[in-house]
């Protein structure tokens, strides 16, 4: 019933806004996000995709195709390795679906699953960049100086945006005809 709900407008607009904000926030807050030796990666696209899975309320959003499209846009716009985000975004959506199968749909399991998603996403991203020679930072330094700040930033995003996005999805799924 995706095509009959307001989500056919809300979801793609939210995905576009999150793609835009990832780049814009990283640019505007670069002195905070990338203060040597620390670096934080804003992952609002992952937040949007993960929360969309939790809040779709029986409306089956085609998350994998949208995740692939968002990955292509992210690869073309901000990634140094073409195809990395195009593969990682749908894999994280699939991981979310697998993990959510074992837990209830509430706040604590959702934040825990998002935490795991960010760790997997950032770690696979690190290893991909390490293998092609984009980065030469050791794994321990990656954990301390990049993964930990990235987790902190994105958990704060989760805490700030969880309830507004839940309210938006409640509104968008409340009436099935548009």
From TrEMBL:
Transmembrane region(s): 107-130, 142-165
Domain of life: Bacteria
Xref: Pfam families: MreD (PF04093)
Keyword Transport: no
Record's bilayer topology term: Multi-pass membrane protein
Keyword Acyltransferase: no
Subcellular compartments: Cell membrane
Keyword set, alphabetical order: Cell membrane, Cell shape, Membrane, Transmembrane, Transmembrane helix
UniProt record similarity statement: Belongs to the MreD family.
Protein name as it appears in the record: Rod shape-determining protein MreD
């Amino acid at each position: 019933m995706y095509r009959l709900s307001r989500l056919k407008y809300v979801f793609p607009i939210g995905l576009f806004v999150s793609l835009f904000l990832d780049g814009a926030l990283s640019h505007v807050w670069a002195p905070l996000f990338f203060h040597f030796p620390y670096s934080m990666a804003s992952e609002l696209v992952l937040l949007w995709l993960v929360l969309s899975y939790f809040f779709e309320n029986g409306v089956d959003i085609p998350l994998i195709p949208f995740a692939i499209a968002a990955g292509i846009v992210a690869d073309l716009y901000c990634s140094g390795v073409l195809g990395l985000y195009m593969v990682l975004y749908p894999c994280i959506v699939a991981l979310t679906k697998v993990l959510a199968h074992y837990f209830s749909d509430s706040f604590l399991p959702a934040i825990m699953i998002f935490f795991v998603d960010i760790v997997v996403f950032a770690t696979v991203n690190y290893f991909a960049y390490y293998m092609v020679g984009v980065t030469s930072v050791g794994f321990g330094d990656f954990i301390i100086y990049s993964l930990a700040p990235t987790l902190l930033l994105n958990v704060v995003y989760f805490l700030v945006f969880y309830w507004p996005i839940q309210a938006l999805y409640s509104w968008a799924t409340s009436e099935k005809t548009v």
